[in-house]
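Annex B.
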Amino acid sequence: MHLNNTRGVLALAGLGLAAGLVAAAPAQAATSTIQIRPADMLAPTGTAGGGTQEFLAEGIHLKTVNDTDSFARGRFHVGVPLAQVTTVDYTWYGPSTPVDVGVKNYIDADADGKIDGELRGEHQYGGQDVWVNLDTQDFPDSALPDNFFRNHAPCFENTPAAGVTDPCGSWGGDGYHGTLANWTKTLQAATGKAPVLVDGGYALSGVVADGVLRQITYGPNQYVFTDQAKAAVVATAEAKRDTVNKRQKARIAGTVKPVGTAAKVTLQVKKNGTWTDVSTRDLAADGAYKFSAKTVKTGVNRFRVTVSETNSTAAGTSDVVKVHVLRKK
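Bacterial Ig-like domain-containing protein: predicted structure tokens.
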């Protein structure tokens, strides 16, 4: 992935990061983009030893000042099957040697809803290999025995575990490692359950470095970091007929722009002084919608539409639409 817009280039230039320091992994063909803001971060997230973690319009500025106790780290929710995650895919603008930012994979190995271990990966280890960074004993809620991940690692250094046919490449950590695809196989074989990547994250430590992390991709989802507010939506609404007979339905149509992923649009009617939901549906990709609804009284009936908040767009409400209802003669 590459940034092509001017704002991104200026932000990087302002941090003194030259284009020659860009390190990027091949994309995993993500099918959705999810924005991550400071409010989305989970514990443990933060810095120590003079480290810097600053959300930008396009990415997170991460900096460490020594290779001992200085670090910057973050964590956020993902929730995808580990089988869908086969590459260590992220975009890092900064030094890539001797090490760049590491990507975290918090794994629920037995699908009981609790994290059992954390696997770590970096570009320099081939783009698919991850190693044990935290094992079951580091997660008190885990029901699995201590050292479960180490005991079921696809490889120990250059030696593959029984049944693992892929060669063992380079690794980080203490030598218990393997490709993401092989981790899925060995963990599922050990538990009889499909492992889940519950949370993702990043860590910059053990090196003096300064750069910007733009995105991390886990399977079908690309997670992009930003400090920008969600986009405001504009919802229009219009009655097909502003006057109907009592037995006729009111027909309301309009558009919503921009359209956020998984946005829903709801028709409401004002009844006894309170806005009441009539019908809710998924918002179409082009933002257009149509509703029909029974009126609640003779005289003026008031309708409006509301739009749900999404990962990238704020909630919105249309202007009020008045429909006059006549007694049927």
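The chain has two domains: 6-225, 234-326. The chain is about 10% helix and 45% strand. Further annotation is deferred to the next reporting cycle.
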